Amino acid sequence: MEQNLDYKRLANDLNIGFYKIDSEGIILEHNCALNKIFGFPSDKDLKNLKLTKYWKHSEKVKEFIELLKYNTSIHNFSAHMEKISGEKIVIKLTTNCSIEPKTQEFIVEGMIEDITDIYNLEKRLQESERKYKELVLNIKDLILKMNLEGEIFYVSPQCKELMGYRQNELLNTNIFGYIIPKDQQKIKTYLDKNLIESKDIELETQIKHKKKKFIPVSIKGSVNFEDNIFVITALISDISNRKKAEESLKESEEKFRAITEQSSIGIFIIQDGKFKSINRQYAKIFGYTLNEIERFNTDKFLNLIYPRDRTLVSEQMNNVMKKQDIKEPYTFEFRALNRDKDVIWVQATAKSIHYRGKSAILVSIVDITKKKQVELRLKNSEKKFRTIADNALIGIAIIQDNKIIYINDALTSNFGFNKEEILFKDVREFFKIIHPEDRDLIGEQVNKKQKGAEYVLKHYEFRAFTKDGKMKWIDCHSDTIKIGNKPSILTMMIDITEKKKFENKIRKSEEQFREVFNEFPIGVTLINLSGKVINCNTRVEEIYGVSKSNLINKNLRYFQNFIVKEYLPRAVKAFENALKGKKSKPREIKVVHRDGSEFWIYFYIRKVILSDQDLYLVISQDITDLKETQKHLIQSEKKFRSLFEEALNPIFIVNKEGYYEDLNKAASNFLEEKREIIIGKNVFDYTPIQQKESDIKKHSPFYSRRTLETDYYIHGKIKTLLLNIVPFTFRGQKLLYGIGQDITDRNEIEQKLKQSQKKYKKAYNVANFYKNLYAHDMNNILQNISSAIELSNYYSEIDNVPGILEMLEIVKEQVYRGNNLVSNVRKLSKLEEKDISLKIINLCEILEKAIRHLKRSFPTKKINIHIESFSSDIKIQANELLYDVFENILINAVNYNQKKSIEIWINLSIIKYGQNKFVKMEFKDNGIGITDSKKKVIFKEGFQEQKGQKGLGFGLSLVKRIVENYKGKIWVEDRVKNKYYKGANFVLVLPLEKYE
Question: What are the pLDDT digits (tens) for 795-853?
Fold first, then answer.
């Protein structure tokens, strides 16, 4: 026989809905979970309903349909939907599309998961973060964040109100600069100790206001590890008012003590779990003097309490101390022993106070022994009502002469009435709140019991309605008693509405899970401890080809007929383990169907308790298709391994962390190491050290498809692979395989070709530059000489000797220019060489030499040179061409100056770029200046500009090349900003070696 079991334990509660719809969105198949998600009854068939009608936003439907056009599967698609009740929900879809082979219809099937709770939690989290920000901005207390040295890196806006400083004034300063000096060392020691013991910070001190006064504050905080450093987060509160109150409290304490000493009430104060103050009356109540009782320890105070009440008093006092703020007096009573060991009754009243700056409990004690004696006599006189008092937690009523003469609060509150509406009213007036089907029963029982009938119902259940119309189930215990020699009814009622609802849910749940049990896709068999089958589901019938009726009450040995002989020991071993209480692993066994066909199953057995009954749960799952798939997979893996090993290209397999899992022979040959050495290494172990950081970025995200060139450092040389990397999953593990092509030789050839092209282009440009240089400047020089000779001939004919001498000066000047041209061409040629020899030289000596030459070159000019330098011995890496740099800049300052008095200012200073030091040289003049448009081109090759003087046009391009060979920089700017006509400022920056 099939037994009534707790089916709820036999299957998981499925929360994910399954659906299958056609191209119009009509449901073809679904599971019960889909009903639950959309609020349908679990047994309702949803076929032919249109699933998309429950989408809240039509644009989401369009988006979903658009995705289906281009994707065979969609994962984690979120949308807002509505239940049939109108309740809004958020769901997550996973969908696969296919064409039905038989009908050629477009089919969509997948799963729906209700993620409303997660969605709402995320919204609540966002709201919580917003409120936290508002709290920080609106809280009165100051929030600081600092490191362990006290350096502040965050401060809340409240700093202005508390300390008088703005946020930017406090940032990057040290907190100890504001703490009163006498507390600084003490606080540092306290912080060190708390950091070691991982305790929260709580202290009081004084901090300095911007107006130089000190403010008393409370500092509370904690130490956390954030962004790789320890961070102290502190909340600083102004306690000025509290400190003033404490001073006032000290004065009031003396007054309080004087009053309590004269009081007729015993008074004591508890703070931090200890007695802090006791008055004389307290001692007097217990028969002791004040001096005697002040010397009591905890045990002696405990001995003042009557032994049976000690636990009660301990619990009450613990409750008092746990409450931080007892606004209303908290009162309780207990028995005590006086000095003569007489039992006395006392009443204790507790209230929160502030005592000496801290929270405390004030307890007053009153001797109520006489009061208790009176109450005891009163209780004895009310003995008839002791039963009612003992059962006061359930609804109680007493009926006499059809009148309700007593009713307790529990009963009135249960039905929503107050006592005045019921007490002393005719009970028959309230029959109307009883369910029509139960009224006759209640009326009959009330009449019989008031008449003292012998055979009555003492326990029954009925339905009734509350004052506001809600129906309740009532469990009623009713009996006849005598009050004043009259038959009366004592009725006790308990609300069992929730119990009834629960029982109904259990019944429905069992029906649902019975259906789930029978439709479960895995075979489930239940066997009792005697080895007999007591139940099984439909899948078991299908697996063995035997009906449930034939399996029920069959012995376990019956199943031996279905197990292939060689696999029988596995099944027996599993059952023996279950008998011993051991966990049994799922075993693969081969079984025979009743029709003779053989197939594979997973066989699993374990001991369970269902409905308070010990049973064996046997699971049988058909895995024939799985075994066949495994067989094909093994064959496929063999083929893959053969192709993998024989491939000519290197093939690597790595895990998602980048560690080699496998590689073929070609890959081993490429890395020039044995396979067993390579496996377990990381791919970046073969990366050249200088490229490691950039290669990690280049391969990020690591678990992604990509094609790129990758360098490998192998035994002192660099080899290059063109890698095609593809992610895949194998047996649940995320892996990547990379197929590579060795392009090391190809890259070397390409590099040599690029270098050759670069050298050719550079040589061509240099030759072209020199050609233009000679063609242009030599033509100018020769033209000037030719013109001077013609003028000399003319002057000789007219005997003009001064004119002839002037022409000879022109010829002399042009010869000098020609020499400079040859010299500069040689220098330019030298700069084109790869390796230029540099040495440490004294910059100041070279500068002085250039200045002396300048003054000799222009003896008729009035030149004033002003030098400001941080040292006279400045060492840099340079060569003899530095002289040409200074000479060129200085000569330009003279040539391009129309003033009678030429002023040149030379400033030398030290600057830093990163960790390196440089010497900065500024050559300022009062000449004609350089416009912004010409500032951009004067350092380029071929630029020529003459302003009143004749000069060679490639001077500054030569200067720029020399400076760059020193790893320096040169540029020009206005001596006076935005006023170029006030003169130029040539700025030169060179790496500094040292100075004295």
Answer: 666 665 566 666 566 666 656 656 666 666 666 565 555 456 889 999 999 999 999 98
Tokens of 127: 């709201």
- Distances in Å between the Cα of 265 and the Cα atoms of 152, 275, 280, 347, 348 are 54, 17, 9, 10, 10
Question: Which residues on neighbouring strands pair with residue 606, listed in sequence order?
Answer: 617
Tokens of 165: 């400083």
Q: What is the CA radius of gyration of the chain?
A: 51
Q: Tens digit of pLDDT for each residue in 293-339?
A: 888 887 888 888 999 998 888 888 787 777 656 667 778 899 999 99
Do 853 and 963 sit in the same domain of this protein? yes
132 located within any domain: no
Residue that the structure tokens 């070279």 belong to: 846
Number of domains making up the chain: 7
Pairwise pLDDT comparison (19 vs 927), residue with the higher score: 927
Question: Do residue 566 and residue 670 come from a single domain?
Answer: no
Residues 478 and 395: beta-carbon distance below 8 Å: no
Distance of CA 776 to CAs 812, 871, 943, Å? 19, 43, 12
**Contacts with 687 (C-beta within 8 Å, 6 or more apart), sequence order:** 695, 710, 711, 712, 713
Q: List pLDDT tens digits, range 649-666.
A: 899 999 999 999 999 999
For residue 701, is the peptide bond before it cis, meaning its omega torsion is within 30 degrees of 0? Answer: yes
What is the distance between the alpha carbons of residues 770 and 818, in angstroms, rounded to a whole number?
Answer: 14
Q: Mind listing the pLDDT tens digit for each residue in 337-383?
A: 999 999 999 998 888 777 776 778 888 888 888 878 766 775 665 55
Which DSSP string corresponds to 576-591? HHHHTT-----EEEEE
Contacts of 656 (CB under 8 A, 6+ apart): 702, 703, 734, 735, 736
Q: How is residue 474 written in tokens?
A: 């009532």
| Boundary residue ending a domain (691, 710, 742) | 742
Full domain range(s) for residue 926: 837-995
Taking phi over 0 as left and psi of -120 to 50 as alpha, with beta for the rest, 358 belongs to beta
Show the DSSP H helices in 429-585 as ranges.
439-450, 497-519, 538-544, 548-551, 568-579
Regarding whether 604 and 712 lie in a shared domain, the answer is no
Whether 456 and 551 share a structural domain? no
Q: Do residues 30 and 51 both lie within one domain?
A: yes
Kindly state the DSSP code that residue 777 receives in the 8-state scheme. Answer: I
User: 348: how many CB neighbours lie within 10 A of its CB?
Assistant: 20
141 in Cβ contact with 167 (< 8 Å): no
Which residue pairs from 459-464 have beta carbons closer than 8 angstroms and sit at least 24 positions apart in sequence?
A: 461/496, 462/434, 462/435, 462/438, 463/434, 463/435, 463/437, 463/438, 464/415, 464/433, 464/434, 464/435, 464/438
Parallel/antiparallel/unpaired status of strands 651-655 and 459-465: unpaired
Q: Evaluate the CA torsion angle 695, 701, 704, 706 in order and state its sign.
A: negative
Cα–Cα distance, 258 to 15 (Å, whole number): 71
CATH number of the domain that residue 485 is part of: 3.30.450.20
The secondary structure of residue 774, as a DSSP letter, is I
Within its chain, how far is the Cα of 667 from the centroid? 41
Q: Does 157 fall in a domain?
A: yes
Q: Are residues 459 and 534 in the same domain?
A: no
| C-alpha dihedral (251, 256, 257, 261), degrees to nearest 10 | 160
The residue out of 217, 238, 259 marking a domain boundary is 238
Residues 806 and 796: their CA atoms lie apart, in Å, by 12
CA 315 to chain centre: 42
Picking from 508, 504, 510, 509, the residue whose alpha carbon sits closest to that of residue 2 is 510
Token pair 């200046």 is found at 929
**What stretch of H or E contains 953?**
none
How many helices and strands, by DSSP H and E, does the chain display?
31, 37
The span from the CA of 489 to the CA of 402, in Å, is 9
Query: What contacts 675, CB < 8 A, 6 or more positions away?
Result: 663, 665, 668
Strand partners of residue 332: 348
Pairing outcome for strands 901-913 and 862-868:
parallel
| 322 plus 393 within the same structural domain | no
- Is residue 205 one of the residues assigned to a domain? yes
Judged against a pLDDT cut of 80, whether residue 708 lies above it is answered with: yes
